[in-house]
Design a protein that fits this description.
The chain is α+β, with helices and mostly antiparallel strands. Helix content is 50%, strand content 15%. It contains 10 helices and 7 strands. It starts with 5 loop residues before the first strand and ends with a helix. It holds the Pfam family HTH_18. This is AraC family transcriptional regulator.
Amino acid sequence: MTKPQQVGVSFAENSRVELTRCGRSTAVDIQPGDVFANGWQELYWSRVTRMDEALEIYPDPAVLRAAAGRSSAVEIEPLTAARDAVVLAIAARLKRAHVHDTCLDGVYASSLAHRLAEHLVTYYCGIRPDRGRPRGGLDRARLRRVTEVVDARVDEPLTISDLAAAAHLSPFHFARSFKESTGMAPHEFVTTRRMERAKALLMRGGLSAPEVAYRMGFSNLRHFRQMLYRCTGFMPGELRAGASE
């Protein structure tokens, strides 16, 4: 069960998970990177058959109100298996800190909290607050196109020019705008998505660690193992062992 006003990001693959909201149940196929949210209603999960790994975020109500420019409560709209590069990038940063038991600098942590609140208020709270001077980041449509390109070609060579083309920007402008929007450089985002795909492949079984590493574009197995652990907190053997259970 998740409590009200939660934003969650799944980092694991699950099929036909039962999600119950407001007494209504829905079967959902979950992919790594899917975003879920609920407003004031609690969310119930059942029939989770595979190892589950998710990050739950509960935004500070005061920060949400400040982002919306309101004194009254702000409700987050329900989301089911949404794709959102900004939420995913922030969640990946928080997950990495948790996996490696490191503390985020107070300024950096608060900047992530305010960036998330601003994004939620703008797109998922039914509010279009007056921002004054526009931000220099990417708009939602461009972020979606970039995410779609990364996910579609996650096991192929990708360049900054490929991603910039999806956003219809120059590579320099794209790299700067993407990081401003997500808090993560483009190459970090691509690596994170590749490692989540690698984790899903290892958990399915059938492929060895060297085979998965090669498929994800790594010629050095040691480097692949290091990046997998850095991004997911698991070594290949742990994931393959879970697949055989």
